Amino acid sequence: MRIAFIGLGIMGSRMAANLARNGFELTVWNRTVERANELAAAHPQVRVSSSPADAAADAEIVITMVVDGPQVRELLLGEEGAALRAAPGTLFIDCSTVGIAEAQAIGAELAERGFGFLDAPVTGSSPRAQDGTLLFMVGGSTEDFERATPALQAMGAKIVHAGPVGQGQAVKVISNSVTAVNATTLAQAVLVAEGLGADVNALIEVMRNGSAGSTMVELKAAPMRDRNFPTLFKLDHMLKDVRLCLEAAHGAGVEFPLAGEAEQVLQAGSEMGLGDEDFAALIRTLEPRTDLAP
Amino acid sequence: MRIAFIGLGIMGSRMAANLARNGFELTVWNRTVERANELAAAHPQVRVSSSPADAAADAEIVITMVVDGPQVRELLLGEEGAALRAAPGTLFIDCSTVGIAEAQAIGAELAERGFGFLDAPVTGSSPRAQDGTLLFMVGGSTEDFERATPALQAMGAKIVHAGPVGQGQAVKVISNSVTAVNATTLAQAVLVAEGLGADVNALIEVMRNGSAGSTMVELKAAPMRDRNFPTLFKLDHMLKDVRLCLEAAHGAGVEFPLAGEAEQVLQAGSEMGLGDEDFAALIRTLEPRTDLAP
């Protein structure tokens, strides 16, 4: 089976490599052609194409992995977009995080032209993209989901069918908002422990072994304690996901007040210039100011 | 070694039984004497005493496990309190959650009378008390900590020395506040998923396998989804712990805004009459009101 893979960033290049390793024929396109050439040099079954439209021309499945909805829209539906030359019945799988309404709109436009569509955002950062152990949350028909499964399994350890088109996005942005709130809570807890003169290591050990345990405690407690944040997921990307969740919730008339609190903290971090750092750096926005006169 | 154990409630009775099983001689006291008699009937090395003072008379260690600071104060320092007849050098261990300032005040009063003191609150509900797998967070001197360790190991799987007197409380109330915020976040996420028409089971599966994972997701996501809350830890008790944390943080001039949000949700739950239910019932306070005219 031939797959067109569009978008070879930190995540996409690793995902495409796993498809190649698992025996899929790939036609790839990337705005910076060097990334595409590197992949083709490493994998004989990878072919570099000159445009998204060209990449899709003889593919059964077209995968996109880019930053946001406008990019997906341009690469699929734009002047040189993949939909232009794709064969009828081609299945489009977008792995970007674009929000629920945008995924539904793109899916509807593709359906009008006779194409299938799945929104299939991922969780897990570049090490898991590298290992092929990403988690995919997939929205779309059962038929399309089953058609996509072999390709998704080449890139991920867990593939969850979340419902019709858009629900992959819904589950993704809600889940990431929970992550953002848990991280903000952890940061505030570390600062309270410091303020009370408590032993932060004892607190971390207790949280890990008790009801306060979380993936955020495992991944971010030590970086927050040490104020040293290896970048696994950028603060600005987390801010984007939380906003997509809040917009969707607002549109549906439901509230997510704690995600709203996390948004404000992340927003403050972004304004402080921490947007390209790991989101654990949000603790910096909560620290007592030492640069102000009393 | 003889231990006086004061307070045989749901937790205390199970903790005392584990001390007896591990070969400690016990003198026990409980306001409702039937609980003490039951324990003595099941364990030949348990003796029932007529007052806290009486229980402490020939003990090397006095353990209290009750509801709050005023109770601890009365049982140790009141008219028939354990301090009245305890031998010089007796080590008092309070396993209740009483707050940092109260633990420090009680510790200081006992020290004036020549006694040692550890604040050693626990985490883990009655099944872990039963199995002897509680987690103890201990504040006090290293010497007292080492002296207490064999007894604590008979009741717990993990014993963390958190610093001087009061720091066991600090770590406990901060950790429980993180639990409370994580639970509130989870409840809001479940309600957002429902509001968006997303698949709550898919969301739970994704959270469990991704960065949003937490002990709260493991323990409370299904009860919240089903609106069926087996009581492991009462909502009013969680509210108490969060308030103790907020009071201590306020006193130290640090903030814990997300714990403040959780406090308001728990307070609303208590006012709705959910105080004796498991704290997962806090989701009820967040649900869209269906009993009001539009």
Describe the protein:
2 copies of one chain form a homodimer. The first copy, chain A, is of the alpha/beta class and 294 residues long. The first copy, chain A, has helices spanning 10-21, 33-42, 52-56, 69-77, 100-112, 126-131, 142-155, 167-196, 200-209, 215-226, 235-252, 257-271, 283-286; strands at 2-6, 25-29, 46-48, 61-64, 91-94, 116-119, 122-123, 134-139, 156-163. The mean pLDDT of chain A is 96. Chains A and B meet through strand 9, helix 8, helix 9, helix 10 and helix 11 of A and strand 9, helix 8, helix 9, helix 10 and helix 11 of B.
The helical percent of chain A reads 40-55%
Number of domain units of chain A: 2
| DSSP helical segment count of chain A | 13
Q: Note poorly predicted spans of chain A.
A: none
User: Proportion of β residues of chain A?
Assistant: 5-15%
Shape verdict of chain A: elongated
Largest interface: A-B, 64 and 64 residues
So what's the oligomer here? Answer: homodimer
| CATH fold annotation of the largest domain in chain A | Rossmann fold
* CATH 2nd-level architecture of the largest domain in chain A: 3-Layer(aba) Sandwich
CATH class of the largest domain in chain A: Alpha Beta
**On the 0-100 scale, what is the average pLDDT of chain A?**
96
Q: N-to-C terminal Cα separation of chain A, in Å?
A: 67 Å
Radius of gyration of chain A: 21 Å
